[in-house]
Design brief:
Elements lengths: L1 H12 L2 H8 L5 E6 L2 E7 L5 E2 L7 E5 L1 H8 L9 E5 L1 H12 L5 H9 L1 H14 L3 H19 L6 H36 L1
Parallel strand pairs: 1-4
Antiparallel strand pairs: 1-2, 2-3, 4-5
Helix pairs in contact: 3-7, 5-6
């Protein structure tokens, strides 16, 4: 979790105004989850996130479509963001986190210099100009990963088989209930 907190604080460091607003919630425990990634901690007086014990007061859960929307330059749908716990805190933190953007060029300039970093950023932005194509491929690869590598999503035939099994079980339970009612009626009639 320390690595996630360090990365989150690194992005916060690039946004001093957001960090100042974040500091208004000092002492509050929050969590942000975009499976399989998650970061949680307590907000410090300086607006940083620090490791802490205990459950978060507010949790912001993001679906993978939020990442795809962000990469493609769109606003994510509100239905793709789930707020849990203290909704007022979660809403405020989600609004602040939504304003965070990693300035990769700034970090890259420390390694390769300002001019090279600027050129690499322009190259990357040019490649991302085909946002639909990239977002779609990213989504396809992520969904394939979730289905094949880490089976968190079921394939359509599996879902169809499960639905069929549930329907069969429901029908069998209804027939059993009718048989039991008939047997109960027969036993009651014999005892009467």
């Amino acid at each position: 979790m320390k690595l996630q907190i360090a990365a989150f604080n690194h992005v916060l460091n690039q946004h001093p105004v957001v960090r100042e607003e974040f500091a208004r919630f000092s002492g509050r425990r929050v969590a942000i989850a975009l499976p399989p990634l998650a970061v949680s901690g307590v907000i410090t007086e300086d607006g940083w996130l620090a490791a802490c014990e205990g459950e978060p007061e507010a949790v912001i859960r993001l679906k993978h479509s939020v990442a795809v929307a962000t990469l493609s330059g769109r606003q994510p749908d509100l239905a793709d963001i789930t707020l849990e716990g203290d909704t007022e805190l979660a809403t405020a933190v989600a609004r602040l986190v939504g304003g965070l953007k990693w300035d990769a060029a700034e970090d890259l300039s420390r390694v390769v210099g300002d001019v090279a970093a600027s050129r690499l950023e322009k190259l990357a932005r040019g490649m991302l100009g085909v946002k639909g194509e990239i977002a779609w491929r990213l989504a396809e690869n992520w969904i394939e990963h979730l289905r094949e590598e880490a089976p968190l999503l079921a394939k359509k035939p599996q879902v169809d088989g499960f639905v069929h099994a549930v329907d069969t079980l429901r029908d069998d339970a209804a027939r059993l209930e009718k048989r039991l009612a008939a047997l109960e009626a027969a036993v009651n009639q014999k005892n009467s």
